[in-house]
Amino acid sequence: MWPRFGLVPILVMLPFALATIAEHIADMVILKRLSGKDFMEDPGLDRTLTGDGLATIFAGAIGGPATTTYSENVGVVALTKIFDPKVLQFAAIYAVILGFSPLFASIVYSIPSAIIGGASFILYGMIAAVGIRNLIEDRVDLGDMKNTVIIAVMLVLGLGLRFGPDISIAIAGTNIPIDRLGVALAVILGLILNIILPSTKEDEKEVVSEEK
């Protein structure tokens, strides 16, 4: 069928778009640290975000999932130390070709779940580890209560909502489970808190200067 547009799914996906944009930028920052190449300058963040969006539009038009910059792949890059985009381009072409092979699909499905689970432990854990590493290398001051509060709120929203009570938001007559919006809400609230919360370190400096 041809793609159809509806107000409800568009409104539901808008917060997720903010989450994937934040994830994309974070991935570019991490890749810069891992590879020593500034992908935000070459080819440029505007081009990488545009490519991300166009790929997702095309995938959605043919009934596929979103093709965002999944952070798990950053974990793969960190483990393999392969930073050349050409290698990943060839890997993508091979993946598309092999996706039409039932034999290859059978081989993939024959991999024991324990092995897949072990790999997932490393990949998903690598995302958090590299994120913490970035905070340390950027010298984010966790002694500033503003930064601590933002991190705490985003962690609870991003990870904890799915374990809470079933709460739904009514959008255009449709109830949307709030646990599905955890990451998106974490990004939005994190941005808002970063703007409105005062820095406690600045307050301390003002107090010290007034005492002098």
Structure explained in plain terms:
This protein is mainly alpha-helical. It is built from nine helices and two strands; from the N terminus they run H-H-H-H-H-H-H-E-E-H-H. The chain has a two-stranded antiparallel sheet with strand order 1-2. Helix 1 runs parallel beside helix 3 and helix 7 packs antiparallel against helix 8. The radius of gyration is 21 Å and the shape is globular. The protein starts with 6 loop residues before the first helix and ends with a helix. The mean pLDDT is 80.
What is the strand content?
under 5%
Compute the CA-based radius of gyration: 21 Å
Q: Tell me roughly what share of residues is in helical segments.
A: over 70%
Rough shape? globular
**Reading side by side through the largest sheet, how are the strands ordered?**
1-2
Low-confidence stretches: none
Query: On the 0-100 scale, what is the average pLDDT?
Result: 80
Report the structural category.
Answer: mainly alpha
